[in-house]
Design a protein that fits this description.
By secondary structure, this protein is α+β, with helices and mostly antiparallel strands. The protein contains 3 helices and 5 strands, in the order αβββαββα. The chain starts with a helix and ends with a helix. The protein binds guanosine-5'-monophosphate and zinc ion (ZN). The site of zinc ion (ZN) has 6 residues, from helix 1.
Length: 134
């Protein structure tokens, strides 16, 4: 897609620090390096996000993401890893080309906060369930 920065990286029109590539996907270091080794896995073909990517492509990216996450954790001596993807602006997606973040975790000094607030006392689970399954 025109003017898509990740399409340009996939086509090598813009350089990326590539750690893995095959016919379907590309993995490269995220510019921000939230933690050392922060990596993005993208399909070479343009899909907007997780909600829109084709199933076979997603399955392939999942397998590649697992292999790379293990390699990154091992070779960078990380203690854990967050695998995540943001879909749509409301969820924090800033680049509208599907990508999976691999964010290795080291210790409490990691400058990343994933905070799941506990709202369990304020919600009606049955009501939510009924809406989802209507
Ligand atoms: P999002 O917020 O959409 O889930 O994540 C987009 C990510 O892309 C951000 O972590 C940002 O640092 C990264 N990013 C944006 N532009 C570039 C770029 O040109 N090159 C690389 N390597 N990463 C980028
Ligand atoms: Zn694109």
């Amino acid at each position: 897609m025109e003017n898509c920065i990740f399409c340009k990286i996939a086509k090598k029109e813009i350089p990326g620090k590539v750690i893995y590539e095959d016919d379907i996907c590309l993995a490269f270091l995220d510019l921000s390096q939230t933690t050392n080794g922060h990596t993005l896995v993208i399909p070479k073909k343009h899909y907007k996000n997780f909600l829109e990517v084709d199933d076979d492509t997603l399955a392939h990216l999942s397998k590649v993401t697992k292999k790379l996450a293990k390699k990154i954790v091992t070779n960078l001596n990380a203690l854990g890893v967050n695998i995540l993807t943001n879909a749509n602006e409301a969820a924090g997606q800033t680049v509208m080309h599907f990508h999976i973040h691999i964010i290795p975790r080291y210790d409490e000094t990691d400058k990343i906060e994933i905070n799941f607030a506990d709202r369990s006392n304020d919600v009606d689970l049955d009501n939510i369930l009924a809406k989802i399954n209507k």
